[in-house]
Amino acid sequence: MNQITAFPAIAGLVAIIAALYNAAKNDRLKKYSWIVPALFSCFFLALSLQAVLTEGLMGFWPEHTRNLWGNQIWYDLLLAVVAALYFGIPEAKKVGMRVIPWTLLVLATGSIGLYAFIARLMFLKSRQAA
Fold first, then answer.
1. CB contact at 8 A, 97 and 105
2. Contact, 28 vs 37, CB < 8 A?
3. What is the structure's pLDDT at 14?
4. How many angstroms separate the CA atoms of 73 and 25, rounded?
5. Residue 24's pLDDT band (boundaries 50, 70, 90)?
6. How far apart are CA 100 and CA 16, in angstroms?
7. Beta-carbon count within 10 A of 43 CB
8. Which conformational region is residue 29 in: left (phi greater than 0), alpha (psi within -120 to 50 degrees), or beta?
9. Residue 26 in 3-state DSSP?
10. What is the DSSP string of 90-106?
11. By three-state DSSP, how is residue 49 classified?
């Protein structure tokens, strides 16, 4: 099994574990809990840089325009990012984040910027709670 077939399966398992853990855990924000989304952002950045260096900067676009499943995945990603921003921006404003630069980062990089946004938001909220 190579990286292209193994990593998506591993990522799916990690996503299931993370989602279930998050749903079951205590809602209290821990001081260093922001590190988890920061690590996700860094890890996904590394994978994305590998893809950009191997396939080119716009290599994702043919995948999203190849067929209806590619279209569906594109729409799903857009809807997920917009929903996350919709719920995250009011919270970010409450802790004093400048939301326009963060929104542009998320729109330009997708999950990389989104997880960085979440990490920063969690960091500021934990600092505010202390």
1. no
2. no
3. 87
4. 29
5. confident
6. 31
7. 14
8. beta
9. coil
10. HHHHHTT--HHHHHHHH
11. helix
| 110, 44 Cβ separation under 8 angstroms | no
- Whole-structure pTM value: 0.85
Q: Domain extents for the chain? A: 33-129
The length of the chain, given as a count of residues: 130
pLDDT at residue 4 greater than cutoff 80: yes
Q: Which two tokens stand for residue 19?
A: 């989602």
Round to whole Å and give the CA distance between 44 and 39. Answer: 8
Mean pLDDT of 56-84: 94
Q: To which residue do tokens 């855990």 refer? A: 25
- Region of 26 (left: φ > 0; alpha: ψ -120 to 50; beta: rest) is beta
Closest CA to 102 of 76, 128, 115, 94: 115
- Closest listed residue to residue 91, CA positions, set 65, 111, 58, 120: 120
